[in-house]
Amino acid sequence: MDRETQSEAVRAAVDAIADRLEAEKSHLTELDSAIGDADHGANMNRGFQAALERLEDADGEPAELVKTTGVALVSEVGGASGPLYGGSLMKASQELEEGITAESSVAFAERYLETVEERGKASVGDKTMVDAITPAVHTYKKAIEVDDHEPLEALGKAVDAAGRGVAFTTPLRAKKGRASYLGWRSVGHQDPGATSTLYLLEELFAVATEYLDGDVEVDAEAEVDPDELEEPAADGDGGA
Amino acid sequence: MVGIVVVSHSGRAADGIREIAREMGGDARIEAVGGTEDGRIGTTPDPIREAIEDVDSEDGVVVLVDLGSAVMNAELAIEEAAVDEVAIADAPVLEGALNAAVAATSPSATVESVREAAEDAADVSKV
Which pairs from A178-182 meet CB under 8 Å and 24+ separation? Predict the structure, then answer.
C-alpha cells in the first residue's frame, strides 16, 4: 500500500470511529453513569468530531494524521480520556513516520499501550481501558512476530482479545479512575473505557478489512458479547 | 520567584483557591486554570502549559491539581512547556496552594522547597 493510500486509510478509520462513537454515545454514557461521571460517551464523541474537523486541514502523511487526531482529543475532550487516548496517539504516531507496515504497526501498538500505562498508572485488572488494550496488543504482536500471520488476521485476533478483556472488566473492583472511589460498588459493571477501546479496534479492523482486502472473521461477539454480559438479569432477555 | 499554577476541574474553583492563597502569600506568582474552553467541568493541557510559562521567572514552577485527569493533563502540559523545572505537588489543592504561596515568598525558595511545603498540607488534621 503506498503512502497516499495509507493516509486515506487513516482518514477512513477516524471517520468510522467518529461515526461509531456518535452511535454509541448514549451507551457509553450509560456505562459511565454506573461507575463514573457519565461523560465518557459525550467526551469521546466530541473529541473524534473535533479530530474529523482538524483532519480536513491536516498534512497528508499517515503519522501526521494520527498525531493530529491525538492533538484534537487532548485539547477537546476535557477529561482523562483526552490525555489517555489522545496523548498516547500522539506518542505512538512517531512509530509510523516511515509509513504503516506490519512491523511499524506492532511498534505503534506497543508504544500506545506503554503510554497509556505510564500516564494512567494502571495495570491489567484495575478495571480500565488497559484491560482491553493489553490483551489486544500482546495478541497482535504475537500473531505477527511469532505466528507469522498477516496484519489483518492479527488485527482480527486482537479485536477478539480486546472483547474478552472488556467482558473481564465486569466482575472487577475498580482500582483506578473515578470508579475507584466506589470501591466494591464498582463490581458488576462493565468498564466504559475498555468498551470504547474495543469500539476503536472494531472500527480499525473494519477499515483494515476494506483496505487490505481480506475476509477474516472476528468472532469476539460470537464468543462473548460484553454488552450482554454486563447485567445478566437486568431485562430478562439473557441474550443467549 | 517560584511560580504556582492551580489546576481544578472548575475555573471558578481554581480562581477561588488562588484568591485564598493570595491572601496569605500576597506577592506569589499564581495562575489559576480550570474548566474546558467551552465552559464545561474538566481540564485540558494547553491552558495549563500557558499558565506554567506565564508564571515562570526562571526559578521554576509548582503545579497544584485537584482530581485524576487534572494530573494527567498537567503532566502533558509540563512535557510541552518551555520551562526547565516544573513539579506537580501531591497535595490537597486548596491547603497545598496556600502553603505553596507562603513558601514561594521566601527569598531562598526553590521548586523543591515549595513542593514540599505544599505536600506538608496533606498531613494537617482539620478536626
Answer: A178/A35, A178/A36, A178/A37, A178/B68, A179/A35, A179/A36, A179/A127, A182/A35
Angstrom distance (rounded) from CA B69 to CA A176: 11
| CB contact at 8 A, A52 and A32 | no
Chain B residues near residue A78 by CB distance under 8 angstroms:
36, 40-44, 69
Query: What pLDDT, in 10s, does the model give residues B58-82?
Result: 999 999 999 888 999 999 999 999 9
Is the Cβ–Cβ distance between A87 and A70 less than 8 Å? yes
C-alpha B92/C-alpha A92 separation (Å) is 33
Q: Please report where in the chains the cell 478495571 appears, as a residue.
A: A127
Angle at B94 between CA B86 and CA B52, to 5 degrees: 25
- The radius of gyration of chain B from alpha carbons, rounded to an integer in Å, stands at 13
Q: Which of A40, A44, A76 to mutate to test the interface with B (most CBs of B within 10 A)?
A: A76
Residue from A174, A206, A207 nearest A193 by CA: A174
Q: Inform me whether the C-beta atom of residue B10 falls under 8 Å from chain A C-beta atoms.
A: no
For residue B31, what are the β-bridge partners? B5
Which alpha helices (DSSP H) does chain B contain, by range?
Answer: 11-24, 45-55, 68-80, 93-104, 111-120
Digit-coded pLDDT (tens) for A48-65 = 999 999 999 998 999 999
Q: What is the pTM of this model?
A: 0.86
